[in-house]
Design a protein that fits this description.
two-stranded antiparallel ribbon, alpha+beta, Beta-Lactamase, 5-stranded antiparallel beta sheet, 273 residues, 12 helices, Arc Repressor Mutant, subunit A
Length: 273
């Protein structure tokens, strides 16, 4: 797939509502990051906790915290997995990648919270900081795992429902991927529309208005393109075999269709190779 998927700076109202609700329930921050690590949205528009704000000014710099965040984002980018980690202030945070069409489109962060009542060494002699530390929400390991599951489910819902504004049209790319994954079978407008959570008429209007094409024509073009890819890899493959591989059982119909669309026969294309 050409190009890259990336989150736009604008998130849909439903995404913001989901983030706000999630943050309110667990009483922690939920942060949406772009693929480059920039903060796009904080759940409930909350800033960092008073404890973390003082820590960043008095003990560790903001740059130190951001450097660790970027390091963990890169870890999830490489592994594709959600992970939890402990920050310099002794608090636990969770970072999860947002994958769209097998590309990292951004991250969702969850934090900061305690997983024990142990006081970090660097504030043991500071009663005020200890008080602020103990005011932060505390979760057991089991509750932390539940939050991970909830965050994972939230991300899947957001991506599946296309609730994010993207720099490239995600719906079209998902449609092309869906067709490509099912070329050998029977493709219908209704099935594709259902996969994209849109009505059949809505999908046809979308293709006509945005791409000046139809679902049927898009399928044809993708089937012919796949056939040409197969011949480039193996020029001696018979027409009938390639036609079957791209979902057309009648080799004669495939040849007529190819000639109509490409202005040459399959044999001529193979001879040019």
């Amino acid at each position: 797939m050409n190009g890259h998927v990336s989150l736009d700076v604008l998130l849909s109202r439903e995404v913001c509502r989901l983030l706000d609700s999630f943050a309110a329930i667990i009483k922690t921050q939920v942060i949406f990051y772009s693929a480059g690590g920039e903060i796009l949205k904080r759940g409930r528009d909350c800033s960092v906790s008073p404890f973390c704000s003082i820590v960043q000014k008095k003990y560790f710099s903001l740059e130190t915290c951001q450097k660790l965040d970027r390091k963990m984002q890169e870890f999830t980018r490489r592994t594709g997995k959600l992970c939890s980690y402990r920050c310099h202030a002794g608090l636990t945070e969770i970072i999860a990648p947002i994958r769209v069409l097998d590309e990292i489109a951004g991250f969702v962060g969850l934090g900061q919270f305690r997983i024990s009542d142990d006081i970090p060494d660097f504030i043991r002699d500071d009663p005020e900081m200890i008080r602020r530390y103990l005011e932060l929400p505390r979760f057991t390991p089991q509750e932390t795992e539940c939050m991970k599951d909830m965050l994972h489910a939230l991300i899947e819902y957001i991506v599946d429902r296309e609730l994010i504004s993207f720099s490239e049209n995600l719906r079209y790319r998902r449609l092309v991927c869906y067709i490509g994954d099912n070329l050998a079978g029977r493709l219908t407008l209704a099935q594709a529309a259902n996969h994209l959570h849109i009505s059949a008429s809505g999908l046809e209007h979308f293709l006509h208005d945005k791409y000046d094409t139809s679902f049927k024509r898009l399928v044809i073009q993708l089937r012919l393109r796949r056939a040409e890819e197969l011949w480039r890899a193996s020029p001696d493959t018979p027409v009938r075999e390639v036609a079957n591989a791209v979902g057309i059982e009648d080799a004669h119909y495939f040849s007529r269709l190819y000639h109509k669309e490409r202005g040459m026969s399959p044999r001529e294309f193979k001879d040019r190779l």
